[in-house]
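Hi R.,

Here's the input for the zinc ion complex you asked about:
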Amino acid sequence: MSPTAKTRRCTFIIENGLIVDGTGNTATEGDVAVDGERIVGVGDCSGFRADATFDAGGKVISPGFIDCHTHDDRAVFATPDMSMKASQGVTSVVAGNCGISLAPFETGNGLPPPFPLLGREENFTYPSVRAYREAFERKPPALNLALLTGHSSLRVNVMKADLERPAKEPELRDMQDRLRQAMRDGSIGLSTGLGYPPARNAPREEIIALASVLWEFDRPVYATHMRDEGDHVLEAVEETIDTGRRAGVQTVISHHKCSGPKNYGRSTETLAAIAAARAEQKLGLDVYPYTASSTSLLPEYVRKSEDVLITYSDPHPEMAGRRLEDVAAEWSCDPIEAAERLYPAGAIYFQMDEEDLKRILAAPGAMVGSDGLPGGTKPHPRLWGTFPRVLARYVREQRLLALEDAVHRMSGLTAQTFGLTDRGVIAPGAYADLVMFDPDTVTDTASFKDPEQPATGIEKVFVNGNIVWDGDHSSSARPGRFLTH
Ligand SMILES: [Zn+2]
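And here is the predicted structure with zinc ion in place:
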């Protein structure tokens, strides 16, 4: 060891860890040295003199998890400690998914479903990504955030309330220009929600025309909540592959699933199509580790589900946490009418198969994303439980994934897919986004009955070198950055 290395100072060292570095490589024992916001040493850090030391006691040190599928656009302002994510070991979130982004958004044209998932109309106060970014940087939250630009947001800006049709040529050019501006302002790509009312009449050509704009920018991403996740899921996968290929951009299939009992098992078909495409183009997918989905309470989803739970209802807040069927019985009406009376509302839909979920989680290119919906009264437990649940249920209990593989799908793979520079890995020079957890005890405790519960076993979480979660509580640090390409 050189004498200079011996005298090198740093802010802190985490000693005696099992380092799972996010690349998928085999874990190694050692230390991680951090100076300021960056990692400066990995492995044997005895050459550093640190202002503080933490003893990992043999527990895992991994890159902070990146939640690549979130609707945290407003949560970073409303709940800046972001404890529902920090408590899971998450250090960065990708917001603006499923075609709905809080920015760029111009109000006054109504708020069609599923926009209410992000807030009320008065919460949509960011006409540009630049305005959103400035607000973020003025009052940063605990975690980092990268923002996708929602296709449905662009549609509402340009087509106002007249959304049940394809965009006309001048409207399309307007949307392209707005997307370019959003990208210049720091957005990392485009998202669509093609199964939702504001976008379902947008033809494939409209999406290709927009996604093609991304090509003008550095490492852009196109993430899609596909047109269909049920009976026509394979056609939707094919549309996605075609769109990504023709636009020539990194594409991500959001919250991949095969919904509805008659589609159980069809992930063998969708994953085969995805694997074949991955040989030719950049295509990834994200998935959450539950067999129930959650979104707005809409009749079309009620019809396709085995069971439905209410997460919130504006006109009937007392019904949060109840089964839709029970509410309907109480009101002496059918579930569809009950759903209409409860709206604006959110719901949890039981409509997936465990074997599909496992197959998707272990598929090449699959990343973990929570799709958590903050703000509900009884939200889907994925909001608080996703990442620990993968580590507990699918790594420790079922051994579906090796620990290193699971961490890779939560960090390194995600950073690479979404183009987040110097994030998602433990390496000298990378940002000190880190989580220390006990692989033997880490457990999600959030349940459908009691969903807002922090996980156990996540011991320390660092964002840009600052502790944001310590044992069982958030710190007051707000080191989050707005991440751009
Ligand atoms: Zn979605």
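One thing worth noting: The pocket of zinc ion is lined by residues 98, 193, 225, 254-255 (CB under 6 Å).

Cheers,
M.
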